[in-house]
Prior knowledge:
This protein has 14 helices and 34 strands. By secondary structure, it is an alpha+beta fold.
Amino acid sequence: MRRFSLPTLNGLIVVSLCSVFAIGCSGDSPERLQFKDKFPEVVEQWTPVRIPFDLGKVEGNPYDPGEYDVQLKIVSPDGTTASHPAFFMHDYNVVFDHGREVARDTGQQHWEIRWTPTQSGTYEWELVAQTKATRHKLAGKVTCTPSQKPGFVKLSSKDPQYFEFSDGSFFYPLGHVTRSPSDVRWRNNKPENVKVHEALLEERSFAYERWFEKMKANNENFCSLWMTPWWLGIEWSTTYPGYEGLGRYNQIHAAQLDRILAAAERNGIYILLFVTNHGQISSVTDTEWDTSPYRKENGGPAETASQFMTNQECERKTQHRLRYILARWGYSPALFGISISTETDWADLYNGHQCDRTEEVIDGRSYPNHHIPKDIRTVNAWLRRISDYIREVDIHDHLVTTQFSMPDSGHDLWKMPEFDVALNNCYLSAFPVFYKYAESSGGAAEALFGWTRLHDVGKKPKLLAEWGGSHMQNTSERLATDLHAGLWSIAMTDCGGTTGYWWWNEIDDANLYGDFNALHRFLSGYDRRGKHLKSRQGRVAKKLDLAGNARFASHPTRSALVLSNETELFAYVYHRLMNSGLIAPASPEDPRFELSKDSYLQIPEDIREGKYKVEFWNTTLGEISETREIVLQSPGETPRYLELLPLRIDVAIKLIRQTDE
């Protein structure tokens, strides 16, 4: 975060304290800097504070900090100092009218500070407005009372592979992607989706209120959201509605994001916000470069997309946009973190083999796309500079990451301290890459497990950014089975959360939210920090009676994933036919799946001997089907097995060692 210095006298900070009733300091013009309401005298810890104010007639570009640098300078109760930017907004009322979202221009505009106090005690503040010609300020004190709210999400100080809140309580992200109101690829999955897709394009930000309420009811707490030229982006060329070109920001989209973030706050949903989509910085993959305001042909500073990350003016304008994003939305504890880009490896310099839509003539032949060498080092350097800038400006210290699409991308970046979370995709098209990290292959469970082995990033959380069947067309059965098996599979790995399922429209349309609720019930109350849990593929066996001797052989249709330490074991045992995505179970007792009455889970050798409580969980209902107490002998030459319940589809297991009395 950005720090600042105040003048001192004999080592004491000297602040000019003006009335909080919007009376200017000596030499200032109160008509130039006035609060619309009284600056609060008492605020609550972890509770956002919004402070609108006027700054007289706006001339020039109010979004350019070189023309209007307006900041709230703060001295915290512990004596630390920081500076948080204010922002300019043109007011829109976003309403739902006759089945569609409508943004109505109020004709009003104002400046605003959005800030969340993090410490109890007395803050000293000074609001300073610097223009090219004038400087104005107001100052005062505010008391912050303690709160029981958890605060912001951050990396765990106890175990940096996981997350926690500011108050130290554990946070395990559980949720899915909510990129935009709808997705054309989901629309194309089947004809029935077309009508729903068109309705969602009318509903727009109001869809999120419905989704977040359903997510809350089913104990989801996480989602991801994109800022793009066609959804929630704030800077683009005038060829798109609502935009005013480079350096000026789309206030309709900003008002929509205000509403979505407020809905997230009400429903306990934490948003990973992608502030750039890859099409903006690619001339080939999902390209939007032709209409970019950064493109020279459109009046911008860069001739090609490959120059975007090396052009100083592009970077300066990018910083201004990020400054506005953090000023307007960085206040919210519901903002989980910032992702610099979606699928960063589609940027031209990272991709290399296909890029820049510029005609090139070689030996008399015209090539519409010429090739340039890969320059991943330059991309990584740009990402690091952007991360450093976010941390400099962000007084609320949000998590910072970026996303990669391909399995092998980003490994060098995840080693860097500038990035808090490893974030990659795992789609069906890339499953063979992940299978080689698993002992067997066949479906989503093995692929997702393989993804965690491929992305062994050490003491840093890893989250799935996108997954679920193919990245293109899918059947409803494929999507339903991948969601069910995938959620339980990810939960049995060392990921920092269970996130990234892409097909949000399918979840809502088919009402698949219950899968999240069932998993939440299983996970509820368990803190993974410091438990040294290891993920592995488990062995499911079938007992054979050979001439009166019991023998165990690998089960022909059952597999398992296991997460365990020396005294605790969690397992997901599943039918391979369901996991392959070919048949979606109609119920836990679907007769298309044979009933197995003699299945056994092999207990890992590093599980200690002793008395254990065993819980068998119904994965559809999220309820305990049976509880047992067993005694495990010391591991020896003979493998130890846990007899499973008769099952058709799948079962989840908890095996917890009981305290010796």
